[in-house]
Design brief:
The structure is a single chain. It contains 16 helices and 13 strands. By secondary structure, it is an alpha/beta fold. It has two domains: 80-357, 3-Layer(aba) Sandwich (Aspartate Aminotransferase, domain 2), CATH 3.40.640.10; 362-479, Aspartate Aminotransferase, domain 1 (Alpha-Beta Complex), CATH 3.90.1150. The strands form three sheets. A seven-stranded mixed sheet has the order 3-9-8-7-6-4-5, sandwiched between helices. The chain has a four-stranded antiparallel sheet with strand order 10-11-13-12, covered by helices on one side. The longest helix is centred in the last third of the chain and has 28 residues, at 347-374. It is globular, with a radius of gyration of 24 Å. It starts with 16 loop residues before the first helix and ends with a helix. Bound molecules: pyridoxal-5'-phosphate. Pyridoxal-5'-phosphate binds at residues 129-131, 155, 210, 215, 243, 245, 295, 297, 302, 307. It comes from Wickerhamomyces ciferrii (strain ATCC 14091 / BCRC 22168 / CBS 111 / JCM 3599 / NBRC 0793 / NRRL Y-1031 F-60-10). InterPro entries: Aminotransferase_I/II_large (IPR004839), Class-I_PLP-dep_aminotransf (IPR050859), PyrdxlP-dep_Trfase (IPR015424), PyrdxlP-dep_Trfase_major (IPR015421).
């Protein structure tokens, strides 16, 4: 099979005037005239890069965990000078804006192994995490008045990000039964844009989506629907901004509470890739219209402040130009530590194996919470439904309020707030779905609460949280 090469010069029509007009200014000097032959080994009296002897660290020893929550470790020594890899001398120094070659090379191998784009001229740049990636992408594409579609409940900082650049957000509905964006409604919205509720706005320039383990709903879009959404992006000429911080955390389906496919002996990295990891939109992409965002926050550590953007080389170049005049390269010290741990795991497959182990732990936690909730009196009385996630760290609960007669006009905001108070009185913190939208009509309809299985210290804490939450729901129902 030949991989198509994108020839779509129209991609530049998605670029904002701000980005098109950005100029790079450098004090490094003009390129040498051909008549000048440069000395083979010049001594620098030029750039202000401190000699590594000024760095106060000579050696770093990492105790790398063999698996999550496991005290067993292996030792990785990071030396000051090691020409074979990213060492202290390079990691502590100013580095390339797009990131150190060692980590870039890892990220490219990971993409090739798991989510290979459908065209050749793609590229990748490291960033200071997805928050930074999003800021740079909206800087790249938004001119005032441009429309970005977002899921009706979403990671809300994105909304401010879009609005700050003069963009307009238009919500598209999630389908809580099927998982992900409701493709039927989405297609109708695009088909009838000029006669629909947003006819006074331009047609959308982009779709921002969290297709896997969505925040806040925990939903995951099916492969079939992803392909349809990609086809719609091609038909209606918009970009897809795929935010995927949770995608590597896969959850095996709940059966009796104990089954965990990641613990089975014949589970492997190949199975993880072929059977479990959802396809990225970038795999369907033959035109360079997908920007894929990955983050090390949930699978390494949020404090790493590291992520990367994969997309068409034309977009990536402009994002790097922006970084040159804003954040510059992500922390070299952070890159050094992340890269060394990945080396200790033995590269891409070892890293994926770490992600499988994370998935195993999250699955156990999810099963425990579901088992506790299902055994509660409140659940048995039908007071709530569990929206079982296939990926990620969020599990949503839909409250079947006593007055719920599927009235489209019903406003649940006060009721969910009262329920939250009951939960706090019972000793459990949850987040309300209504807080993940700025659209009043969707805030009114939000009957769900978001819980996470990421933070608890022990199984006992998860069990207790489930008991407290279900008793809060029961007490709420008794109080109304
Ligand atoms: C959907 C989504 N995108 C991005 C982020 C932030 O990621 P990062 O830590 O890489 O900036 C989060 C964090 O919670 C998130 O839920």
């Amino acid at each position: 099979m030949t991989v198509p090469t994108s020839t779509n010069d129209g991609l530049l029509s998605f670029v904002s005037t701000r980005s098109l007009e950005r100029k790079q200014v450098s004090f490094a000097g003009l390129p040498l005239p051909t008549s000048i032959t440069k000395h083979k080994s010049p001594i620098s009296l030029g750039g202000g890069r401190p000699h590594s002897g000024f760095f106060p660290v000579n050696k770093i020893t990492l105790e790398v965990s063999s698996s999550p929550f496991n005290a067993d470790t292996t030792e990785k020594v990071i030396s000051k000078k090691d020409s074979k890899t990213l060492d202290i001398t390079k990691g502590f120094q100013y580095g390339p804006t797009e990131g150190h070659p060692e980590l870039i090379s890892f990220a490219k191998s990971l993409i090739n192994r798991v989510n290979e784009p459908g065209y050749e001229d793609w590229d990748l740049t490291l960033t200071n995490g997805t928050g930074d990636s999003l800021h740079k992408i909206f800087n790249l594409i938004i001119n005032p008045g441009d429309v970005i579609l977002i899921e009706n409940y979403t990671y809300v900082p994105v909304i401010s990000n879009i609005i700050n650049y003069g963009g307009i957000v238009v919500p598209v509905e999630l389908n809580f039964e099927k998982g992900g964006i409701d493709v039927g409604k989405f297609e109708k919205l695009l088909e009838n844009w000029e006669s629909g509720p947003y006819k006074h706005f331009k047609r959308p320039k982009g779709l921002y989506t969290i297709p896997t383990g969505q925040n806040p709903s925990g939903l995951t879009q099916s492969h079939e629907d992803r392909k349809k959404i990609y086809d719609l992006s091609s038909e209606y000429e918009f970009l897809i901004i795929e935010d995927d911080p949770y995608g590597y955390i896969q959850l095996s389906e709940y059966f009796d509470g104990d089954f965990n496919k990641f613990s089975t002996n014949d589970y492997s990295v190949d199975k993880y890739i072929e059977e479990d990891l959802p396809n990225s939109y970038i795999q369907y992409d033959t035109e360079g219209r997908v920007l894929r965002l990955e983050s090390f926050s949930k699978i390494f550590a949020p404090g790493s402040r590291l992520g990367f953007i994969v997309g068409h080389a034309k977009f990536i170049k402009r994002i790097i130009d922006h970084a040159n005049v804003s954040t510059r390269a992500p922390s070299g010290i952070s890159q050094l530590i992340v890269n060394s741990v990945i080396e200790q795991f033995d590269g891409v497959d070892g890293w994926l194996n770490w992600n499988i182990q994370i998935s195993e732990e999250y699955t156990a936690r999810k099963n425990l919470l579901i088992k506790t909730l299902k055994s509660s009196e409140s659940f048995k009385k039908g007071q709530f439904d569990i929206i079982e996630p296939k990926s990620g760290m969020f599990l949503s609960i839909n409250i079947n309020f006593p007055n719920d007669d599927d009235d489209e006009e019903e406003d649940y905001r006060d009721q969910v707030e009262q329920l939250r108070y009951k939960a706090l009185e019972q000793g459990v913190i949850v987040v309300l779905g209504k807080n993940f939208t700025t659209d009043e009509s969707f805030a009114k309809k939000a009957r769900f609460i978001r819980t996470t299985i990421a933070t608890q210290d022990s199984d006992e804490e998860i069990l207790e949280a489930g008991r407290r939450l279900s008793s809060a729901i029961k007490l709420y129902f008794e109080s109304v």
